[in-house]
C-alpha cells in the first residue's frame, strides 16, 4: 500500500500502474470477497486513532478501454490491468457512472459524511484516470530462507520502494550448517591449546632426563682411604 499524506505526492492511474510494475508487481486485482475483506482489514489500520492519516482513495487495477459509455453495458467493459479474469465487483451505490471516468478507486474517506450507499469506505468508484490518488500493489509470493517479515509502509515520495515478503522455514541441513560454521574457530582454538600443552609437557620431560645423574660418569676410588693420611 502506498499512502501519500501530501496530496501533491499522489499519482494518476497510469503512474500507479507503472510504479507497481517497476517493482515486479501490478495494481491490485481482487478475486473474491475474502480478498476484499483482507484489504479492508489492512486499510482499517490507517484509520486508527492517533495515526494522523487523512482521507485518500486508492487506485486498484480495474479499468476500461475505449470512449465513454453510458449504456447499461458499461459495467461489463471493465477489466483488470494484470490480466485477471475475476468477475468480482464491489461497486458503491449507483457506480460505475461511466462517461469519462474509466479507472477505479477503492474509497477511503473515513471523515466524509455517509452517502446513499453508506460510508465512503472500501467500495469501488470509477474516476478520471488523471486524478491523483494513493494506490495498492499486488505481488507474487516469494520464497526466501529467512524469518517471516510483515511491514506496513507509509511514504511521502512516489519513488520509495515497498516490498511484501512471504517466506518459508529453511530445512534441517541449512540450520545445521548455521550452527556448525560458527563453532569452527572455537574448535581450532581448542586444538591449538591442546597441542601447546602437549609440547610443553614433552619439553619438561626431556629436561628432567638431561639433569638426572649418569652412572657411567661416576668416579669411585678403588684404593682404600687412610684415615691417618687425610690431608686438608
From TrEMBL:
The protein's UniProt keywords, in alphabetical order, are: Lectin, Membrane, Signal, Transmembrane, Transmembrane helix
Outline the segment boundaries, as ranges, of region: Disordered: 207-232
Q: State the membrane topology.
A: Single-pass type I membrane protein
**What residues does the C-type lectin domain cover?**
1-138
Question: Signal peptide span per the entry?
Answer: none
UniProt GO molecular function: carbohydrate binding
Domain of life, source organism: Eukaryota
What subcellular locations does the record give?
A: Membrane
Please list every transmembrane segment annotated in the UniProt record, as residue ranges: 176-202
Q: Name one GO cellular component term.
A: membrane
Report whether Membrane shows up as a keyword of the record.
yes
Query: Does the keyword section mention Membrane?
Result: yes
Question: According to the UniProt entry, which residue ranges have a biased composition of type Polar residues?
Answer: 210-222
Q: Quote the protein name from its UniProt record.
A: Chondrolectin isoform X1
What organism does this protein naturally occur in? Puma concolor (Mountain lion)
Amino acid at each position: 500500500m502506498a499512502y501519500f499524506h501530501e496530496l501533491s505526492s499522489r499519482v494518476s492511474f497510469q503512474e500507479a500502474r507503472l510504479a507497481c510494475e517497476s517493482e515486479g508487481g501490478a495494481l491490485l486485482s481482487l478475486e473474491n470477497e475474502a480478498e476484499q475483506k483482507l484489504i479492508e482489514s489492512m486499510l482499517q489500520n490507517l484509520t486508527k486513532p492517533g495515526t494522523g492519516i487523512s482521507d485518500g482513495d486508492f487506485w486498484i487495477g480495474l479499468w476500461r478501454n475505449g470512449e465513454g459509455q453510458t449504456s447499461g453495458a458499461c459495467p461489463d467493459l471493465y477489466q483488470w490491468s494484470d490480466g485477471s479474469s475475476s468477475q468480482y465487483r464491489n461497486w458503491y451505490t449507483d457506480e460505475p457512472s461511466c462517461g469519462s471516468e474509466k479507472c477505479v478507486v477503492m474509497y477511503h474517506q473515513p471523515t466524509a459524511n455517509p452517502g446513499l450507499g453508506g460510508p465512503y469506505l472500501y467500495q469501488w468508484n470509477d474516476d478520471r484516470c488523471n486524478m491523483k490518488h494513493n494506490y495498492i500493489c499486488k505481488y507474487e509470493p516469494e520464497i526466501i530462507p529467512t524469518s517471516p517479515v510483515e511491514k506496513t509502509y507509509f511514504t511521502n515520495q512516489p519513488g520509495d520502494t515497498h516490498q511484501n515478503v512471504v517466506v518459508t522455514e529453511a530445512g534441517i541441513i541449512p540450520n545445521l550448517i548455521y550452527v556448525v560454521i560458527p563453532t569452527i574457530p572455537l574448535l581450532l582454538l581448542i586444538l591449538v591449546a591442546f597441542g601447546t600443552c602437549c609440547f610443553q609437557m614433552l619439553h619438561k620431560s626431556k629436561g628432567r632426563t638431561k639433569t638426572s645423574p649418569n652412572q657411567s660418569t661416576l668416579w669411585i676410588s678403588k684404593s682404600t682411604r687412610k684415615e691417618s693420611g687425610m690431608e686438608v
